Amino acid sequence: MDKAAEMKNGKVFNMIVLGGLLKVAPVVSDKGVEKALKKTLPERHHDLIPLNMEALKEGAKIIQEV
Fold this sequence. Notes:
It is built from 4 helices and no strands. With 66 residues, it is an all-alpha fold. The mean pLDDT is 95. The chain has helices spanning 2-6, 13-24, 30-40, 49-65. The protein is flat and about 35 Å long. Helices cover 68% and strands 0% of the residues.
């Protein structure tokens, strides 16, 4: 939650957690997640994809540091 607050968007918490999970169990690549976001999010929300991808990377960093 601290990282989500740091990023000034509590809604990215789930992506931070997903990034951590994918660091431990890489069942899908970052590119795969990005592709899925583009496919599932309405086009009007595609501007949020970079923030979500940043949150994914931050989650992986947190797990790597632990």
